Amino acid sequence: MNKGYNISEIAEMFNITTNKIRFYEKKGLLTPIRQDDNQYRRFNEEDIVRLQSILTYRSIGISVDSIKNILKSNEKENYLTHFNNQWQLVNDEIHRLNTIRKSLEQVIDKIYEENDDFKVKEDLLEIVSESNKLNDIKNQWKDKWNFNSWARSYDKDVKRDIGELKIYKNYDLILQKVYDLVEALGRKDLKVLEIGVGTGNLAEKFLNGGYNIIGIDQSREMLSVAKEKYPMLKVRLGEFLKIPYDNKSFDVIISTYAFHHLNETEKYIAIEEIMRVLKDDGVIVMGDLMFESKASEEEVLKALPQSQVEEIKDEYYSYIDLLKAEFEKYNKKLQYYRIDKFNYIIEVL
Ligand SMILES: C[S@@+](CC[C@H](N)C(=O)[O-])C[C@H]1O[C@@H](n2cnc3c(N)ncnc32)[C@H](O)[C@@H]1O
């Protein structure tokens, strides 16, 4: 009968040092039995499988403490927490490095093109500090509305529409119109990304319509609810400002009731992100709280009681004329549909 392996045999088997194995043991990840006579470690088949898992998880950057936790509990939620955390870490790092790479490109071009050495120094610092600022803004966005705690009651609350502004009174109509605009493109082979998928109500229409759709949201709880309601829906943690996908990955990007959680500066960064992951001939359809312009906002606010004005100021309604101008920079045309006093749908082609 195989009495197991000693530490050198295990080290050789995995091509790692014996010190590494001792380290995992010290951290409580491995617990080989000790021989009665000389207290030498003996590793059995179970230890080997465990070490294989530890090394695999380490290879994708999962921390030793998280691995310990993963190995301790076999629960799906526990796995999801650790792997989602890692997904987020990796995505953040990709975004940070991409911004740095972009600024390095500009710096290198400047150095090649500039003759006056002294002037170049200042320009370089400016480029790098702009790129640092961009990374800071991307990383500083916080969910000040606490969507995790809202997730379980969201669908009920939308139906009751308790806020004074009654922003959800045309909810079903808005979701249907977003769907219809995509349907009108007349193609089923489209890869669709929904940003701020929430509990999945809009995504459901696309699933039923036979589209290839992925929903991202910054709230883990919203994603859990969406996944419970629609097991076939692919969901991922992801934010407007750091979309976790490669360039030109999607034909269509959709979103409802989510864009107003970004302030004006953040909206422009989000548009850059959306344009990055959208294919060249891609289409954006977004329903959200908007005003046609700052002037029309003033008109609307003038007629509202203070409590409603405050409700509006708690969020960041878009100005359609500014969005239009921003999308034009990407050679995109924006057209819009007014649904009610606060809700509009924009279609960007
Ligand atoms: C009011 S809910 C709308 C949910 C869904 N789209 C709907 O129409 O019912 C807003 C959703 O957007 C998500 N969200 C807000 N800001 C976000 C951001 N910066 N990135 C990704 N998701 C965001 C929230 O977590 C929440 O699920």
TrEMBL record:
Keywords in alphabetical order: DNA-binding, Methyltransferase, Repressor, Transcription, Transcription regulation, Transferase
InterPro entries documented for this protein: DNA-bd_dom_put_sf (IPR009061), MerR-type_HTH_dom (IPR000551), MerR_fam (IPR047057), Methyltransf_11 (IPR013216), SAM-dependent_MTases_sf (IPR029063)
Domain HTH merR-type: 4-73
SMART domains: HTH_MERR
The protein's name in its UniProt record: Methyltransferase domain-containing protein
PANTHER family noted in UniProt: MERR-FAMILY TRANSCRIPTIONAL REGULATOR, REDOX-CYCLING DRUG-SENSING TRANSCRIPTIONAL ACTIVATOR SOXR
Gene3D superfamilies to which the protein is assigned, alphabetical: 1.10.1660.10, Vaccinia Virus protein VP39 (3.40.50.150)
Coiled coil: none
SUPFAM superfamilies: Putative DNA-binding domain, S-adenosyl-L-methionine-dependent methyltransferases
Originating species: Clostridium yunnanense
